[in-house]
Design a protein that fits this description.
By secondary structure, this protein is an alpha+beta fold. The protein has 6 helices and 4 strands.
């Protein structure tokens, strides 16, 4: 078996009976399934139960499923939800575009966008080398693919044009 890693990790939202040894039973089941315990957070205490988020590391996606199944088999434990941490990280993408200059006034906006940007655009049109200093071109890269060689995964296809 491959070594468990964060790239195949999940957080289980588990409701445990409020009794001594309940968490130990869950931890034992996770360990016997080959999972490694990560963070353990107490979410809330209810009348007869404790709700915990238990992060586990696995070797692959099927291993996560086996760990979750083992957790669900523990008496006195309900697994309410499983979150794949890698997919959570990718929700909405991982990159954001943030302005380098704060736009606090109308003057700021006029210089950064219309009509100020027109002056910069015209200067670049007259001297194309200015594009390297007056745009983000020197700090960006484009990846163009038809999906036939993505991360060495083979032909996984291109992104569809619409939903």
């Amino acid at each position: 078996m491959t070594h468990p890693s964060a790239s195949f990790s999940a957080t289980l939202r588990a409701r445990l009976d409020d009794r001594p040894g309940a968490f130990a039973d869950l931890a034992r089941a996770i360990g016997e399934a080959g999972g490694l315990l990560g963070a353990i957070d107490l979410v809330r205490v209810e009348e007869d139960t404790k709700v915990r988020d238990v992060t586990v590391l696995a070797a692959d996606a099927d291993h996560i499923d086996r760990i979750v199944a083992a957790a669900r088999d523990v008496p006195g434990v309900e697994v309410d939800h499983v979150s794949d941490r890698t997919f959570l990280m990718h929700l909405g993408g991982k990159i954001e575009v943030v302005g380098k200059t704060p736009l606090k006034t109308r003057d700021d906006l006029s210089m950064a966008y219309t009509p100020g940007v027109a002056r910069v655009s015209m200067a670049i049109a007259q001297d194309p080398q200015l594009v390297w200093n007056l745009t983000i071109k020197k700090n960006t890269v484009a990846v163009v693919t038809d999906g036939s060689a993505v991360l060495g995964l083979g032909d996984i296809g291109r992104r569809p044009r619409s939903r």
